[in-house]
Write a structure and sequence with these properties.
single chain; 98 residues; mainly alpha; rod-shaped
């Protein structure tokens, strides 16, 4: 009987994850600890931890990318400003020659 119940829970977990989740929440709310699918709950908690770590890693990579782009943009902006000043001076010089 217990083996059949475990198989039914495993089958539900594999076939209809959302329903398994709702049933698990209901069982937790009712404090029905014997009915819980502990094996898959443990797997889900471990996967959640891995997903969160990947999410943080991904966000940190994005942050570094944006900081590098910003740094590059800032240095490029200064160079462009210098080039603009040179061109402006050259243009002013050419105007004064005429």
């Amino acid at each position: 009987m217990v083996a059949e119940s475990k198989q039914a829970k495993k089958k539900l977990y594999e076939s209809d994850y959302n329903l398994w989740l709702l049933e698990t929440v209901k069982q937790l709310g009712n404090r029905d600890l014997d009915a819980l699918d502990w094996e898959d709950i443990i797997d889900e908690i471990l996967d959640l931890s891995k997903r969160e770590k990947r999410k943080i890693e991904s966000l940190l990579i994005k942050l570094f990318e944006h900081l590098l782009i910003w740094q590059f943009w800032q240095s490029g902006r200064e160079k462009i400003a210098d080039i603009g000043k040179e061109k402006s001076l050259t243009f002013d010089y050419k105007l004064s020659d005429n």
